[in-house]
Amino acid sequence: MPVPLAGPDGFLPLHTLLQIIPLSGSQGLELTPYAARGLTQTIRQIGDASNIKRTVIGTLVNATPPWFKQYSTTITCRDTNAPCLDDAFRGEVVEIHCAGEFNYPVGGSPHRAQVSGSSRQEGHIMFYRPILICMIKDIEPNFEEYEGYWSWRVEAEEVGLPAEQT
Fold first, then answer.
1. Alpha-carbon distance 153 to 74, whole Å?
2. Would residue 1 count as lying in a domain?
């Protein structure tokens, strides 16, 4: 497991807030120096809107079972190095300490575990960086030889709801 040493402005030494921690026994997909500067992380709900339907009298209802209230994430980046990819494969389980934030009203509670030290308050809203336990669905590295840059994309999806929600 990577050692989270403090860096400037709260960033880890890898120049990113994101951490990918392998949980499946693999050492693949750990971030390397200069692999994640300027990354983009998209977090979206799994599935689609097919469970939002109209009744016979025209009322719109959500028939999504609560156990499907999970997230998928796509992480993309272009930098001078790639993450460790030697033993990184689809199906690996990882703990992702997100770069992006979730939020909730003061007095409420977060629905995902929080990255230690990431909680902050603005007015009546609490912000935090979530921890997602995910399975890797796709890994796509791309090396641009002439420019000397790696472009990479990782897609992952939560493996289940956090214990406090089941």
1. 7
2. no
Closest CA to 73 of 160, 153, 157: 157
Kindly report, residue by residue over 104-130, the tens digit of the pLDDT.
999 999 999 999 999 999 999 999 999
Report d(CA 46, CA 69) in Å as an integer: 7
In this structure, is residue 15 part of a structural domain? yes
Phi and psi, residue 10, nearest 5°: 80, 0
Q: Per-residue confidence at 14, pLDDT binned at 50, 70, 90?
A: low
Residue span of the structural domain in which 79 resides: 8-165
Residue 72 binned pLDDT confidence (cut-offs 50, 70, 90): very high
- Counted domains in the chain: 1
Task: Write down the residue that tokens 């994101």 correspond to.
Answer: 18
In a domain, 107, yes or no: yes
pTM for the full model? 0.84
User: What dihedral do alpha carbons 104, 105, 108, 113 form, nearest 10°?
Assistant: 20
Residue 27 falls inside a structural domain: yes
